[in-house]
Amino acid sequence: MRGNAFEAKVKGDGGTELLRLLHERMGAGAEPPGQALTPDLAAAGPEGRAARTALALREATESGGWALLDHPMLALEVAGSPAYLEPDAVVVHPDGRWTVVEIKSFPMIDAAADASKVGAAARQSAVYVLALERVAVLTKGASVDHSVLLVCPKDFSNLPTASVIDVRKQLAVTRRQLTRLARIEDIADELPPGTTFDLDGQSGASLATAVEAVPAVYAPECLAACELAFHCRGRARDEGTVTALGRSLRGELGSLTTVGEVLAAARGESGDPADPTVAAVRRAAALRAEAGAPCR
């Protein structure tokens, strides 16, 4: 409720305060905004809203003035399927630049905010910037800022203040992650013929068989985001995969992908001694044995 009230305050009066903050932080070389276009972005469904947003961005860029798009809808392809995104606002500058605006309710105290919350806002905004770039490619004279405007309450008041965040690093990470995702078509091609996840017309056993046909890589973080996390956790535990212990540990263990392989390498029963991971595991096992040995 506090966040919604603060966002309404920032965008009130046609976005006057928001545009003032934007020009103050990012408007070097441009005239201060007087009035800004606020196009209507209403349409049927997310696909219609995304198309309406793209049209509004093109029209605003061609007009050569300021424009404020309140809660536009953007589309981004993720693993072969469209994902629809809704930033708080996008501002079109007279020179054709598009800037993402993210409004948060956490405070900036002495012009600084909580680093973890700012980092999360930067990662979120980078996805919006990436989606905007797909639209800008098709719009003559348009460019997307790789810096976003973060608007927060100032100190302990409800007055808005802003800072500029460079999201180029987060953009590079997001692009790399998107290219590594398995496409839905590729996963479907590997499934047995006739596999379906339709809940109607099939028994629980056949549905379980269909789910088992899909490879799963479980990590503890899945519990917060996926309704199949408990199923995949059970499979990970049965198979003894180290991903069940966390992605960071999985990355450190290299070619050792199961708990059994790690224990065998630690006991010297398997593994290449020249492998740095195997050497580190054996060293850790030796230190543990030394620490647990009885004192003399």
Verbal overview:
The chain has 296 residues and is α/β, with parallel strands linked by helices. It has two domains: 2-180, Lambda Exonuclease, Chain A, CATH 3.90.320; 214-291, no CATH class. It contains ten helices and eight strands. The protein has helices at residues 2-26, 45-63, 115-136, 168-180, 184-189, 204-212, 229-239, 247-253, 259-266, 276-292, and strands at residues 67-70, 74-78, 81-85, 89-92, 97-103, 143-144, 147-153, 160-166. The strands form two sheets. Strands 1, 4, 5, 6, 7 and 8 form a six-stranded mixed beta sheet that branches. Strands 2-3 form a two-stranded antiparallel sheet. Helix 3 crosses helix 4 (168-180) and helix 9 crosses helix 10. The termini are far apart.
Search tags:
296 residues; alpha/beta; Lambda Exonuclease, Chain A; 2 domains; six-stranded mixed β-sheet; two-stranded antiparallel sheet; 8 strands; 46% helix
Query: Could you describe the largest sheet, including whether it forms a barrel?
Result: 6 strands, mixed
Shape: globular
How do the SSEs run, as a string of H and E? HHEEEEEHEEEHHHHHHH
CATH topology-level fold name of the largest domain: Lambda Exonuclease, Chain A
Average pLDDT: 88
The CATH class of the largest domain, by name, is Alpha Beta
Number of separate structural domains: 2
Class inferred from helices and paired strands = alpha/beta
Oligomer: single chain
Helix content: 40-55%
The residue ranges in which pLDDT falls below 50 over 5 or more consecutive positions are: none
**Count of separate DSSP helical elements:** 10
Query: Which range does the strand content fall in?
Result: 5-15%
By CATH, the architecture of the largest domain is named Alpha-Beta Complex
The total strand number stands at: 8
